[in-house]
Amino acid sequence: MTASAPHGPVVARTPGELRSALAGAGRVGLVPTMGALHGGHRSLVRLAREHADTVVVSVFVNPLQFGPDEDYGRYPRDLDADVRVLAEEKADVVFAPATETMYPAPQMVTVDAGTMGERLEGASRPGHFTGVLTVVAKLFHLVRPDLAVFGEKDAQQIALVRRMVADLDLPVEIVGAPLQRDADGLASSSRNGYLSEAERTSALSLPRALQAGREAAPGGADAVRAAARKVLDEAADATPPVQLDYLALVDPATFEEAPADHTGTAVLAVAARVGTTRLIDNTSVPL
Ligand code: PAF
Questions:
Q1: Which protein residue has the closest C-alpha to ligand 1 atom 5?
Q2: Nearest atom in ligand 1 to 151's CA
Q3: 274 has which bridge partners?
Q4: Which of 117, 180, 182, 282 is deepest in the core (most CB within 10 A)?
Q5: First CA to last CA across the chain, in angstroms?
Q6: Which of 41, 51, 128, 141 is catalytic?
Q7: Predicted TM-score of the model (pTM)
């Protein structure tokens, strides 16, 4: 175990170092991340702090959740910068294992994300949620947290983690942290750094589409979908264009498409590519 900065968090690289760092830790809160920490992550750490005596942040770019043509290779990695952010946020422990530590052999047994894991993000990124749930289950076993904080930006991810915890009787409380937006309205994401200025301007059609959908809520589910789609259709002709992957209004617990007469809360979710960057965003819509 190495203390990386005066008064900074302890950086643990192995399960053994993690166990020593957590001796007598009291109530432990885990914030799982892939690093490249931004304002959204800071809010997760702060929320964890409200619920826990000791806050552990894992920093691990999980190869299992990336498809062969995705950005695993170019995903931003700067542990020193992440530790500086976590020192500012007064996290107690950073767990940053090497890939060989997490996966000493090819992973044979995985956590199947079921049919919910095949919809939306799962349809566009086959195997993604199996990779996510498998690493989250491993992190839960290694850290043994009392609670874990996940961002609601990844709405389908947190719904699946909640379902895994329920279905597998895992003794971890799941806390959702509200989606954070940058000053211009774009959902905060580690991938925003890939965008050129012009791409970022086009990408702002995503939050605009969600806002249009919310405003159409009194007209019902189909009106929400139509209003959001209109904004994205226009964005498809912008320069650079926004290439829509999916736009869906879904039941928040199952991620099944909400029927036209849906009442209660629904999630309006969008994924699109701008240049080579794939972005997701969502909002909840009261119907
Ligand atoms: O949301 C993320 O950053 C990742 O999917 C997670 C939960 C850290 C698992 O690798």
A1: 132
A2: 1
A3: 242, 277
A4: 117
A5: 51
A6: 41
A7: 0.94
